[in-house]
Amino acid sequence: MRVEEKKQHRFRRLNNFDEVGKGFTEQDAKKEAERCLQCKNPTCVKGCPLGIDIPSFIKEIKEDSPFSAVKKIKEQNPLPSVCGRICHNENLCEAACIQGENAISIRLLERFCAEKEALSQTTLKKPKKNKKTIAIIGSGPAGMTVAGILAPYGYTITMFEAMHLPGGVLRFGIPEFRMSRDVVNAEFTYLEHLGVKIQKNSILGKSFSLEEMRDTYDAVFVGVGASIPKFIDIPGENLNGVYSANEYMIRTNLMRGNSFPGHHTPLKKHKKTVVIGGGNLALDAARTARRMGADVTMLFKRSFDELPAKRSEVVNAQEEGIELLMMTYAKQILGEGAVQGIECTPMMLGEMDEFGEKKHVPIEDSEFLIDCDSVIISMGQRPHRIHELQCYSNGSIMVDDQMRASMKGVFSGGDVVAGEPSLLKAISDGKKAAASIHDFLSGDMF
Amino acid sequence: MENIIKKKQKIAENTFEIDLRCPGIAKNARPGQFVMVRLSDNGERIPFTIVNSTKTNITLVFKVVGFSTKALSNLRKGSHIHDIAGPLGCPSPLEGAGNLCFVAGGVGIAGIYPLLKALNQKGNNLITIIGAKSKDNLFWVDKIRKESNKVLIATEDGSAGRRGTAVDVLGMIMRRRLDMVYANGPLPMMKNVSKVTWRMVKTRVALSTLMVDGIGLCGSCRVKVKEKQKFVCLDGPEFDAHEIDWDEIIRRTTMFCDEEAHASKKCKCGG
């Protein structure tokens, strides 16, 4: 049987923004690690997009040496404390585990190791500097990965962040009840210790141009993410009380509007909030709104099984009393000036299309109303177009298999390349880009 | 040191002018752009138009309307500003040639200054109309006079210039051949300007809306322009006045009035 993670009580968590999952204790971790069969041909490793040597690190936990376990993880993943909290383990390594329903809680073991390391405060050697300089534009997970891998080689690295705090989506997008702010802070303390400089309030295309960067630095990594919110063009979208999920999360998470007026960014206390969308961000916004005291309903066009949000967080959301209305789409938002309600249409599976899939079609004349005073729209994001680089029509940057963009010495990765949010893609892109930047720069050297 | 207040001065009732040393922003600033300012770790991000810039300094002019602007007005010369990001938004395309008319009110009087300067250098004939409640709310008149061929002043109480609003004066001179009108000021005033010039003269306005980040992440500054969703921080702040859904944008700026009032016990909404 799986060792269950201890969680904050479902009533208590509505009154705070503390982490819901408490991770494993030493005993839990050991007990869980004991269950690992140490397969000769581990399927879990194939399930991990980063290729972490999972059986080896679990073995280290079994043998009471979590520090060597972290080392093992960090060979492939520079951000275990982040992945240990928000990785989509259910669909990846744990889905690939041969124990099926009783799969090992790999994510929680990873988190356990990372927490152990964070507590230990091991003194790090400062790397010896070489003469090459690297600019990393965007301080989200992709940029953090590149910096974390390349700083120990002694490169002089400067990270440019558009906002007033570094971390990108980890800072403003992931709510504190999923990942404490201390985790992100610790990652940056570590990077700064390695000599990485972080320059805040610096915006690509405004504070500096990409060409300027390329001329000043030996290599440039562009990891600016995809964060312009998409709207859905339904009537009433601009009524007062309609937010993009981004806006709602930035107000609460980054600007801490939840403690307004102590923090000065205003946030309204709504009574009833409807969230449109079914992704992680939608779910996070819904749970944040719930903590701000609203009754929350989530609308999703497809069925429960097709929800793209992380499964364990969907369970948490249900525990917190969020109503999930599946197979429903928002037709229009109603109200005079401010939101008063939302008109929805239920969907059903229609006829088979040419790909053999059943399409979702609205059921006619069955519209219904939900009374609400706020709506949060979470229908995805798109990247800022960077005009100096070759981009696809959706604005995402074109790169080759070594993450090289169309300008020499410029590399890119993460959401700005993928065009959609994915933490693991950002980390694996970062790894590839770091290797390729290292090649590029050391090639220059010799 | 960067982000230091070099000069602060009260220039009209409740209105302040500050010079900030921030070479990185000053070097890149173009007419029409703005900065986001954050005063402390607990602070909100507030947008301010860059109303003038030298090699190393930028000038901001603001009216005290709420908690954060009050806090900014209390800072002294030599104080350090926690965060300044910019220059943001699109620079003004500085459209139009020939007879151009500027209509300004409130802090917009300073907001038009960089455009005025740039368009004056191009050799246009510039008429500037300044509107204010009374003569106590007027500022920068001499500076603007230097950059315009003609300056008309209107005050609501008649204490300086003509009695009436800037829009009234605009109505009077509409008979002349105008090639372009620029307006900057409170949203209701700009809405009225766009009514007066509707179908007659092309009009451009600089919008001031709610903003959280100012770099396109949140969409709280969204506005319908020509029926399309636009972000003031990314696509603006300058737009064609006749394409804007004015009622919507005026309504949206009042969204957090109750909360703001709670924070500062005083609120002035609608621009």
Jot down its keywords:
A: 446 residues; alpha/beta; Fumarate Reductase Iron-sulfur Protein, Chain B, domain 2; FAD/NAD(P)-binding domain; 3 domains; five-stranded parallel beta sheet; 16 helices; 16 strands; B: alpha/beta; seven-stranded mixed beta sheet; four-stranded antiparallel beta sheet; disordered C terminus
CATH superfamily annotation of one domain in chain B: Translation factors
Number of strand elements of chain B = 16
> The CATH topology of the largest domain in chain A is what?
FAD/NAD(P)-binding domain
Number of domains of chain A: 3
Shape of chain A: globular
Q: How far is the N terminus from the C terminus of chain B?
A: 33 Å
Radius of gyration of chain B: 18 Å
On the 0-100 scale, what is the average pLDDT of chain B? Answer: 90
| Largest sheet: number of strands, sense, barrel closure of chain B | 7 strands, mixed
CATH architecture classification name of one domain in chain B: Beta Barrel
Largest interface: A-B, 40 and 43 residues
In CATH, the architecture of the largest domain in chain A is: 3-Layer(bba) Sandwich
Structural class of chain A: alpha/beta
